[in-house]
What does this fold into?
Amino acid sequence: MPDFLLCNSKLTFQMTMIPDKTNYLTQGPDGVKRLKQGPDLASYRGLSVIHSRAFSMEAGQQPRDILRRRVRTAEYYRIPPSKANLEYEFELYNEERDTWFAMSFKDLLKMAQLGLIDMGGDGDHNELIHRAYERAVRGGTMASLEAAGGADTLLAKRGLGAQFSDTRLSPEEETELANLDMRKNVFFQNSDNAFQVFIDSCIPTARREKRLQLLPAFGMGLKPVFSSRSKVERAFCEAAKTQMNFMPYSQGREHCFVMSDPRVSASDLPGLFRLLHSKPLYKPFTFGLEIAKPGSVDWYKAFAYYMSVYQRRGVCMAFWGIDNSEFRKPPDALLVTLLTPSGGTKSADDVWTKMPNRFDDEDNLRLLHVGCQWQSPIAGYGAVNDPFHLIPCATDLMRTRMSSGEDNPVKCVTFGGFFGRCLLMTWELLEPLMTKYRTVDGDIVTGIQLVQQTGMYGKPNAWEMLAAEVARTMRSFEGKTTNVIPLDEFTVEHTRPLKRAFEVGIEATARALKAVKLNAPLQETLAEYCIDTWPMSMSTMSRPEHNLSSSIEGIRYGEHKHTLDSSYGHLNLKYLRSPLNAPNPELRSRWQLGVPINTVLDGRNRSGQRAWEDTRAEALVDVIEELFNTLSNRIFQRPFVGRPGSDAVGIFGYSYTNSEINFELDQNNLMQYKDQFRQGPHEDIGPNLKDVPLMIAPTSNDDEEGPMIGGAGQGVNLEDVEIVIVRPNIEHSMLGIIMGLGGNELGNTLWGQTELSVYDDSMHGIWGMYAPLHARGALCGRPVRAR
Amino acid sequence: MCGRSYKYHERAIVFNERNLIRLWDVAYDGYNGGKDDTYVDWTDAEDRQPNGFQAFKRLTMDTTKNYRGPSMMVMAFVHRRDSHEFHAHFRRNWPSPIVFHDAWQEGQPGGERVTLPVDCENLQVIDAEEFRVFNSPIYKGYREYFGRMPAFSELHKMRKTAGQSSSEAETPGDSLAFQGTMRIKNRSGGVVQEILGSGHHGADYVGVASVRAGKGTKSQPQAPSLYRMV
It folds into this structure.
């Protein structure tokens, strides 16, 4: 029978039936110490417990308990091939967090991807796994497609977007079509109206028994109806009746009827998906004619992107192509073609030459990057990061340089204006600016309005912080005379100090005015004021990229995620940076680059000083005032728009009630703003679609019914996929024990070569003896002690 | 008081080893790593990611530190279920443990038999042939993953005895994997199937981390009640 147990003290936790008192709450530091050391258990079921100790094993190393060691074990989890796998989630245990986590079959397939590296095995396997993943992605994106409505319900509820027919027109449809043809003249008096051109193009197409593929474009709130059951046309008429306020607006900008509702509801997505699922899509965030084939991962990304764009902005999801010689389109591409009426070319080319971000392909087919579509021509109210608010790219130098010259009224004339146009407005920056206050008069205003209304730029001491930040920024430009400022880097650098300065300054102003700060969540305030921080909120694309990719964007995100808190994670850096190396400077989006500082600041500001040299207090107040005005314009005003080749410049005003937001062209401000134009260029703001009617290219039945082109998932049946997960390095620290029968039965302690002194301590009554031993001599048991 | 210092030599000796037994790994004393939700990125050949397979190899082979690398090796295999090969070789149920690091190559007839030590002292070497699962033509794709794995078999075969690894602070590895705990749920959250783990440390459940941390008790998912602790 063993009579002792040698073990680590912590192991005795598992022996005692009485839990030790280790809680810090009740035991204080002693509890923690006890938890670390373990219970002081003297015996266990008749065994004397000997607590092992940590010994110093190597010089300079921590002492170690040799009854404690690390051990790795391995576990496997297998998911045999089954049809149901796609429907399931698989949960494994996470010991680090003591909880379960779930993975879908798609997740697992992604984790099993091998990339393109061939390690000498079955090279086809990599491709197979990739295709399986793509198929899983495709299946997962629209899992409930079959259960959802068909394409003929597409957007019908709101009377938006497009509709197509796959049969010869029925008499009812003929009647409805005629109705539509007639009514278009009722609602759209202007015969140049894009809607009329649109309808005119649809009717003959329909009558030729062609399928009419209309892109879900324009957010127009109108479409021809060819189904006897469809109420689209009626719905449009009703909508037009009840929302006449958009008519003046639409007369100028037919392609963008601003509706308060989202343009695509979730229930519409399956229909859109069905409509488009066999169509190649241009890849977003890439310049050039890169096409995502149906079924590929890129296609689903593109689809998600376009839908998101469409929901938000109601703009068309395709390239615009202009060809002055004859109508043409790239094969297999969704196109909206810009054609002039009756084949005329009067203003299309004019528009085109003014269009930023254009590029020409080999066939001289001029196309626009899709990214321009949601940004450029129809910046929405409160689109604070619309490129027309921002400093344009390097090609627009002439319109951005600060100058007080009379011949260049559209330039940045102050440093504040320049500064205010170099920042991407993140949620952090908007937070202090959009904090709500109740004034003593009972009005509810935002922080920036409070400051603007009172003009307290230099009065409270707290504004010194903002002045210091502005001065610091100005000085920082001094050494960057040749560099181009990327907007995102500029934002990263200046958002946090600006936010702090705004917070302090605005709160000081509020105190001075006895305004009460209201506790309203930022998101609600942004929604209430229709502030669109795109692309900051465009997270569906950017977030996975940041988390999972090995891209430089992911690294940059990691570097800066604490700098800008949540917003930076939503910056779509991939998009912002993608054409950075484009050979043609015209390809560089306004999003990509700011301007070389030296070319901007080589002029003189109002006081006649170079911008960064003039940091006197009174000059800084001017700068701050202009900064606030610029930011305020970005928040509360639409960007200026204008007609190419024309001096007409307009700004769209708005009226706000409790129930709706109405937009209308502020005719009174047209010329007034022209003279005070500080916001941005007006020559190249985009096409005036009144002069460039849109026509949607119909596709033939064959095109419509075409099979999935190059479906990357072809040949792989997900039912045939087996998943094996192995966790090979599950590592724990483990404790061991030594158990035995002590005393002579086991062995003993050998003492040898002992030298003892003999001594006599009469005071304590102890005496000793000198006991030299021979080399071979040994004593067993305890050391000799005598009294 | 008169006295002198004295010196002595001592050494514990065991005369009767039958009265002494050493038992290794009888109790947990803390979780180090390897059982979280991170996965090995098989595509990261350039070693840019902390979960790339190059980093995975490096961290696995470093047995002198606590393991902090990615946990899961996820492998996918596309079968042709109507093929003769599949019917001939597919096994619905796998043994536990399995040999998860198998150098078998297609065309290798019987191949070299896999033998692995299984005890702490590396005394008992078993024939692990029955635990092999990837030595089959339907798992051709395994070669691709195998090429990206650390040399688990070698780690296993070369591992030190428990006493040595303890005194030298090295972590012994394993190339045998037991069935782990997995729950399969449908989209509405219902548990379709629960496979309980076997082998090294039994089934997983919420609270078992406390046990494996060496506290000896399962933490209760509830607020602490003071009367029991004071």
Remarks:
- Chain A touches chain B through 112 residues (CB under 8 Å).
- The radius of gyration of chain A is 37 Å.
